C-alpha cells in the first residue's frame, strides 16, 4: 500500500549479544540510515534521463482537468512516436496511430505498470481553484462531461450527485450543490488523492473523504513524498514553460514540444458561455476588457472572491501540495513556473 511503514526502519537490537556482534549491528544501522537519507534526498536539479537503447516507456499519471487531454491525447503520442518511445496508458481504435492516452491513472496504477516496464513517469498539476471550477463546469456544461463523470475512472460512482449537479436549472444552486451537498466527494483535493494513490491496479475504485482532515493530512504527506518519484511534472498555468522543462528532462525535441504546447488545445470549454448563468457567485470577468483583472480569462475571474476562498478552504490539501510542487519545480528544473 501507499501508507505502509518505512522499509528503511532500523532493526531491533536484542540484549546480551557479544560486543563484536553489537558493534557490527551498529555499523549496519548507520549504513541503513545513510541509505534512507540518500533515497529520500531530492536533487536540486533534474538530470536528463538517458536512453539505454531500445524503446523506452513513458507513463502518464493523469489527473482530471489538469491539461491531460492536450498532453496525453495529442502531444505525447506524436512526440513519443518521433522519439521512439512507448507511452501509456493507451486507448487504441484499430490502427496503432489512432492510440491516445485516455485513462486517468493515479500513483499506484502508474507505479504498478512501471514495475513491469520501467521508464519515466510524468504528470501535470493545476491551481486548485482553476481545477475545481474546470471540473464543475465540465460536468455541468459539456455533453462529454456528463458522460465522463459517470465513468468509474472519475471515482464519483454516484449517479444521483452527478445528476443533481448537471440537471439543476440554476447555475448558482448547481455550484452550491457541487461544493456543499457532498463534502466527501473525490473532486475535492483530487491532486493529493491521485499523487498519494488509492486505486491499486484497477479503475473501478470509488473514493470518499470519510476520514476528514486527518485523512487528508496523511494523503498530503504521501503525495509530497511521491512527487520525488515523478521524473517530470508541470503546471497548467505555465504550460509552455512546463512542457519545455519536461522535454529537456525526457530528452525530447524541446522546440517541437514547445510549438505543440503553444498552439494545441485538445479540449476547451468556452468560459464566458459556461459561466454566463451565475448571479450570486458571479465575479468580475467584465474587468477583462479594461485589463484590471490579472486573472482575466481564467475560471476564477467568473466567480466572486468569497467563492474562491471557499474552494481554497475545501481544497486546502491541494493548495499546500501546489505550493510545495511549485517550489520543487524551481529547484529540480532550474526555473520558475511563471503564469501565462
From TrEMBL:
Q: How does it sit in the membrane?
A: Single-pass membrane protein
Source domain of life is Eukaryota
The molecular function terms of the Gene Ontology recorded here are: heparan sulfate 6-sulfotransferase activity
Q: Which InterPro entries match?
A: Heparan_SO4-6-sulfoTrfase, P-loop_NTPase, Sulfotransferase
Principal localisation? membrane
Coiled coil ranges (UniProt) are none
Q: Where in the cell is it found?
A: Membrane
Sequence intervals crossing the membrane: 20-41
Q: Which PANTHER family match?
A: HEPARAN SULFATE 6-O-SULFOTRANSFERASE 3, HEPARAN-SULFATE 6-O-SULFOTRANSFERASE
Q: What is this protein called?
A: Sulfotransferase
Q: Tell me the organism.
A: Alexandrium catenella
Give the taxonomic lineage as stored in the record: Eukaryota, Sar, Alveolata, Dinophyceae, Gonyaulacales
Amino acid at each position: 500500500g501507499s501508507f505502509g511503514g518505512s522499509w528503511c526502519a532500523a532493526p531491533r537490537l536484542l540484549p546480551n549479544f557479544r560486543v563484536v556482534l553489537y558493534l557490527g549491528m551498529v555499523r549496519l544501522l548507520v549504513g541503513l540510515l545513510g541509505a534512507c537519507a540518500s533515497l529520500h534526498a531530492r536533487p536540486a536539479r533534474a538530470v536528463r534521463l538517458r536512453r539505454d537503447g531500445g524503446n523506452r516507456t513513458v507513463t502518464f499519471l493523469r489527473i482530471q482537468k489538469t491539461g491531460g487531454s492536450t498532453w496525453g491525447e495529442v502531444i505525447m503520442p506524436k512526440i513519443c512516436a518521433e522519439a521512439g518511445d512507448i507511452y501509456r496508458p493507451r486507448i487504441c481504435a484499430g490502427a496503432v496511430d489512432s492510440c491516445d492516452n485516455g485513462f486517468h491513472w493515479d500513483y499506484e496504477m502508474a507505479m504498478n505498470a512501471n514495475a513491469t516496464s520501467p521508464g519515466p513517469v510524468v504528470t501535470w498539476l493545476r491551481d486548485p481553484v482553476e481545477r475545481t471550477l474546470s471540473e464543475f463546469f465540465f460536468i455541468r456544461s459539456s455533453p462529454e462531461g456528463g458522460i465522463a463523470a459517470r465513468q468509474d475512472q472519475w471515482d464519483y460512482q454516484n449517479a444521483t450527485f452527478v445528476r443533481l449537479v448537471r440537471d439543476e436549472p440554476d447555475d448558482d444552486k448547481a455550484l452550491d450543490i457541487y461544493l456543499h451537498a457532498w463534502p466527501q466527494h473525490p473532486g475535492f483535493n483530487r491532486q493529493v488523492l491521485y499523487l498519494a494513490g488509492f486505486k491499486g491496479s484497477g479503475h473501478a475504485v470509488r473514493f470518499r473523504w470519510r476520514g476528514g482532515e486527518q485523512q487528508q493530512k496523511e494523503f498530503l504527506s504521501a503525495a509530497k513524498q511521491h512527487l520525488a518519484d515523478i521524473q517530470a511534472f508541470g503546471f497548467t498555468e505555465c504550460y509552455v514553460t512546463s512542457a519545455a522543462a519536461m522535454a529537456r528532462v525526457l530528452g525530447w525535441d524541446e522546440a517541437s514540444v514547445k510549438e505543440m504546447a503553444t498552439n494545441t488545445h485538445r479540449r476547451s470549454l468556452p468560459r464566458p458561455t459556461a459561466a454566463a448563468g451565475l448571479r450570486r457567485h458571479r465575479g468580475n470577468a467584465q474587468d477583462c476588457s479594461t485589463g484590471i483583472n490579472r486573472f482575466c480569462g481564467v475560471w476564477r475571474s467568473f466567480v466572486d472572491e468569497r467563492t474562491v476562498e471557499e474552494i481554497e478552504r475545501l481544497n486546502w490539501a491541494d493548495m499546500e501540495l501546489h505550493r510545495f510542487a511549485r517550489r520543487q519545480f524551481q529547484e529540480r528544473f532550474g526555473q520558475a513556473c511563471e503564469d501565462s
